[in-house]
Amino acid sequence: MKKLLTICLIMATALTVNAQELNFDETVKYIKENLIKYKFYHHQRRVGYQIQCNIDNFKATQNGEILLISTSGMNAYVCNEQIINLFEKDKENGQEIKIKYELFSGDDYGIAFGSNYYYQLSSDNAPPNVGERLANAFNHLRSLCKKEKDPFDD
User: Fold this and answer.
1) What percent of the chain has pLDDT over 90?
2) Sequential DSSP letters for the chain
């Protein structure tokens, strides 16, 4: 009887762990909601000044391309439409980009896509670990995507 109970507990635990993993659409929804809710942004440089451009839309494809659309708060001017391929190479070291939450400068933290792209967290009401969770969500999204093979890659 004890063995049967132990087996049932192990199976229940395994099913619970598997049930917590998000699929592609759920992961995209989670990332989009949190990028917007906690006001991740990047600076768009213009002649003589900078505009803080908050991310207000996010899309992803099954081949690993994501689209981050940022607008300025003043007049909904589209500052940037950034397409990032989660499988691209880092411009500094040629390795696949590492997605992580890190210190950018001073006490400004954000999500870095290798050395290629950086999106800063601006929300004061963000939980202390929202950046790490979002970086983990981006890495999980990459694991759900399929890299398209370039016919001219070695």
Assistant:
1) 29
2) -HHHHHHHHHHHHHHHHHHTS--HHHHHHHHHHHHHHTTEEEEEEETTEEEEEEEEEEEE-TTSEEEEEEEETTT--EEEEEEEETTPBPTTTSSBPPEEEEEEETTEEEEEETTTEEEEE--TT--TTHHHHHHHHHHHHHHHS-PPPPTT--
Give residue 51's pLDDT band: very low, low, confident or very high (50, 70, 90).
low
Residues 6+ apart with CB under 8 A from 66: 58, 59, 60, 83, 84, 85, 86, 138, 141
* Length in residues, the chain: 154
Contacts for 79 with CB less than 8 Å, ≥ 6 apart: 44, 51, 53, 70, 71, 72
Whether this prediction's pTM lies above 0.85 is answered by no
Do the Cβ atoms of 44 and 68 come closer than 8 Å?
A: no
